[in-house]
Amino acid sequence: MHNVKDLNDYTSPFTKISQEQYSSINYHHSEYERRGSFVAACSAFRKIDVDQYNEDNYKEDECGESQSPPSIEALKTVLRNAPISSRNQMVKDAALNVVMQVLLSMKSSQIEEAVNALDRDHLDILMKYIYRGFETPSEGSSGQLLAWHEKVHAVAGVGCIVRVLTDKKRV
């Protein structure tokens, strides 16, 4: 063990340390020696089991067959509350933004399931929103909307497109 006089002999005259500073340094040094090392003292992060997030072990929450995913329920809710008869364009634009967020947030593997869960009237409204989304494309939206259009056309047929194009009520 060194004392303050010995340490001051090895330092420059401008960095003389006091007995209080020496005691503090000595205390911290002994704490690290007691714990083994600084890394061992900071091992709280090791309490998380990172192996549970490995792709081989990870399993998505499976929904029951009677329960549809939240994104499909969100789509049904948005289509059910579509402001078709509203004359306020700001309300229609806000509804379009919500529908586009729901459509673009869905995975392509969920599109067919979502379309099959809708009835004819909701498919017509969805097709209206798809065409409206084509009017104001954003980056990556056109490809996603084409996938939606394909699935809706496969389920609802050409009649859906004709009904949407000839209907005077717009979304």
From TrEMBL:
Keywords of this entry: Cytoplasm, Cytoskeleton
Gene Ontology CC: Arp2/3 protein complex
One GO process term, biological-process aspect: regulation of actin filament polymerization
Localization (cell): Cytoplasm, Cytoskeleton
SUPFAM superfamilies named in the record: Arp2/3 complex 16 kDa subunit ARPC5 (SSF69103)
Residue spans crossing the bilayer: none
Cytoplasm is among the record's keywords: yes
Keyword Transmembrane helix recorded: no
Gene3D superfamilies: Actin-related protein 2/3 complex subunit 5
Family: Belongs to the ARPC5 family.
Function: Functions as component of the Arp2/3 complex which is involved in regulation of actin polymerization and together with an activating nucleation-promoting factor (NPF) mediates the formation of branched actin networks. Arp2/3 complex plays a critical role in the control of cell morphogenesis via the modulation of cell polarity development.
UniProt cross-references to PANTHER family, sorted A to Z: ARP2/3 COMPLEX 16 KD SUBUNIT P16-ARC
Protein's name according to its UniProt entry: Actin-related protein 2/3 complex subunit 5
Organism: Daphnia lumholtzi
